[in-house]
Write a structure and sequence with these properties.
Keywords: Methyltransferase, S-adenosyl-L-methionine, Transferase
GO molecular function, one term: rRNA (uridine-C5-)-methyltransferase activity
Number of strands: 18
Largest sheet: 8 strands, mixed
InterPro entries: MeTrfase_TrmA_CS, NA-bd_OB-fold, SAM-dependent_MTases_sf, TRAM_dom, U5_MeTrfase_fam
CATH topology of the largest domain: Rossmann fold
Strand content: 25-35%
Number of domains: 2
Strand order of the largest sheet: 3-17-18-16-15-12-13-14
CATH architecture of the largest domain: 3-Layer(aba) Sandwich
Domain TRAM: 1-28
Length: 375
């Protein structure tokens, strides 16, 4: 039930009925939870903006609920007990540095309603970094029925791009026209392992939370425990966020193979590693690429929301890595793939979770799998 909190008594409007699931949205609260707060955005209500679905919940309870979801998914799907605390990464508001908005046929700029194509006109969004909030956009250059992609780099560079296709026809790698800034921006990420800089084009993936790249890099490298001469296989490696941070650890005698299907991301990666001789970049589907590798010391994978799946997991295990580090944005997919790994002899050794998307139900996890012991 959208906009409800477990334990509350509410009146809802049914928005969808599936075989084993009824979806609804709260239209009245009869008995409120002590965790209920006034939402900071006036568009976060039934029938309103579909972006933030946790704004009515106290931030500590938000993170507790996300921890419960991870535990529930592992219990239901992987048939195992997992206890993990969701860690704070940023402030609850003003954390988002990248977003995609939509214009209606009438030219109203905003976000879509939940489970709908209806555009909710937005004049300001409290989770956005102020420098890219709606009032700052060049609205006169944005046509009706178009998608608008906005991003802000750590160096203060801002890019605004408008799709050349109407919103209903947009695909993942849609062509865009840059109406402000440059297509490629630069992001600096500082961690305890060092500092790296990255070129990231408008069409390439980069975490939207301002502090996410550093937080994830710290966790990934801690779990990977890389050493001199190691071979790191970086699957779904994007522009090379983790690969760049790993280079000082593996040294000149080590090697990194980045596998990424997005040509935009691998073009950026090629630029990011243009003066590095021990990084190879492969623009290819991960499942196909894995046929060409015989071994790896550590495998890192950051798949899309659907997860890696049985075929990819089987091919990773065939490489006999020392460890596997898995970054997941969907606890259910991670739990499913944990089951695949366990069946092939790799066990969950450690897991961390991060609140990269405050005010929403989304949560990011980093899991370490090893073949030497059962957790």
């Amino acid at each position: 039930m959208r906009h409800a909190i477990p334990g509350e008594i509410v009146e809802v409007k049914i928005t969808g009925i599936e075989k084993s699931l009824i979806r609804g949205d709260v239209i009245a609260v009869i008995e409120a939870s002590p965790s209920r707060v006034k939402q900071p955005c006036r568009f976060a209500h039934a029938g309103g903006c579909g972006g933030c679905d946790f704004q009515h919940i106290d931030i500590d309870r938000q993170r507790a609920l996300k921890s419960e979801v991870i535990a529930e998914q592992f219990a239901r799907i992987a048939k195992m007990e997992v206890e993990v605390e969701v860690e704070e990464v940023s402030t609850p508001l003003h954390w988002r540095t990248r977003y995609a908005a939509t214009t209606s046929a009438a030219g109203e700029l905003g976000f879509k309603a939940a489970s709908s194509t209806k555009v909710i006109a937005i004049d300001s969004c409290p989770v956005l970094i102020p420098e890219i909030d709606f009032p700052t956009l060049p609205r006169n250059e944005i046509l009706a029925g178009r998608r608008v992609d906005v991003a802000l780099s750590t160096r203060g560079e801002r890019t605004v791009g408008v799709s050349q296709l109407r919103s209903s026809r947009i695909e993942q790698n849609h062509p865009i026209e840059i109406i402000e800034g440059r297509k490629a921006m630069f992001f600096d990420v500082a961690t305890s392992f060092g500092e790296s800089s990255y070129q990231v084009s408008q069409g390439s993936f980069w975490q939207s939370n301002i502090n996410a790249p550093a937080a994830l890099t710290e966790a990934v490298l801690e779990f990977a425990d890389l050493g001199e001469g190691d071979h790191l296989l970086d699957l779904y490696g994007g522009v090379g966020l983790f690969a760049a941070a790993a280079l000082p650890l593996i040294g000149e005698s080590g090697k990194v193979d980045i596998v990424e299907a997005s040509s935009s991301a691998t073009r950026d990666a090629a630029q990011n590693f243009r003066s590095v001789t021990n990084v190879a970049i492969h623009t290819v589907d991960v499942a196909k690429a894995l046929r060409n590798f015989e071994s790896a010391d550590v495998v890192l994978l950051d798949p899309p929301r659907t997860g890696a799946g049985a075929e990819v997991i089987e091919r990773i295990v065939a490489l006999a890595p020392r460890s596997i580090v898995y970054i997941a944005c969907d606890p259910a997919a991670l739990a499913r793939d944990t089951g695949y790994l366990r069946a092939l002899g790799f066990h969950l050794h450690a897991i961390r979770a991060f609140d990269l998307f405050p005010m929403t139900h989304h949560v990011e996890s980093v899991a370490l799998f090893t073949a030497d012991e059962v957790s």
